[in-house]
Amino acid sequence: MIQFTLKCANDHQFDSWFQSGTAFDKLHASGMVSCSVCGNTEVNKAMMAPRVSTAEKAVTPPAKPKLTEPANPAEQALADLKKYVEKNSDYVGGNFAKEARAIHSGDAPERPIWGETRGDEAKKLIDDGVPIAPLPFTPTRKSN
Q1: Which of 6, 73, 110, 133 lies in the 20 to 30 Å Cα band around 120?
Q2: 3-state class of 36 per DSSP?
Q3: Surface-to-core class of residue 93, CB atoms within 10 Å of its CB (0-12 exposed, 13-18 middle, 19+ buried)
Q4: pLDDT tens digits for 99-139?
Q5: For residue 15, what are the domain limits?
Q6: In a domain, 55, yes or no
Q7: How far is 2 from 50, CA to CA, in rounded Å?
Q8: Backbone phi, then psi, for 64, in 5-degree steps?
Q9: How would DSSP label each residue in 69-92?
């Protein structure tokens, strides 16, 4: 595994791991590498400082953020969105498709909801004009 520091055309810088340098080159050539902040596929390797340790002096690595804390502004924005969705909408669990359809047809009171559904059910909702969107994060499941 190899870690590269990458930079997109919009000047966002981020790190990503690849199986090898060749694997990165193949993925990059096929347009499969995109910016983790904006999704831009115009991504190139950024200048990286080599990690070299000497026997004379042990180098203390910089403190890494805790895994429970957002590491950058994009992760913080997702955390804020997740908190907002969970606070301001009703969790309907596996009944999402049924509940969304009922709200759309007027058979249930209009309100923001979130939950789970299969891909084919989501496609049917979209085809029928029911306004839905996938969440860009995995919500904390609530028990009823």
Answers
A1: 110
A2: coil
A3: middle
A4: 999 999 999 999 999 999 999 999 999 999 999 999 887 76
A5: 2-45
A6: no
A7: 12
A8: -95, 150
A9: S-SSHHHHHHHHHHHHHHHHSEEE
51 located within any domain: no
pTM of this structure: 0.50
Q: How far apart are CA 136 and CA 35, in angstroms?
A: 15
Token readout for 111 is 């309100």
- Give the type of residue at 108: A
3-state class (DSSP) for residue 126: helix
Does some domain include residue 39? yes
Task: Give yes or no for a contact between 91 and 114, defined as CB atoms under 8 angstroms apart.
Answer: yes
d(CA 124, CA 135): 17
Q: 141 is written with which tokens?
A: 């499941």
Could you report the per-residue pLDDT of 14-69, keeping only the tens digit for each? 888 888 889 889 998 988 888 888 888 899 888 766 665 556 666 677 776 667 77
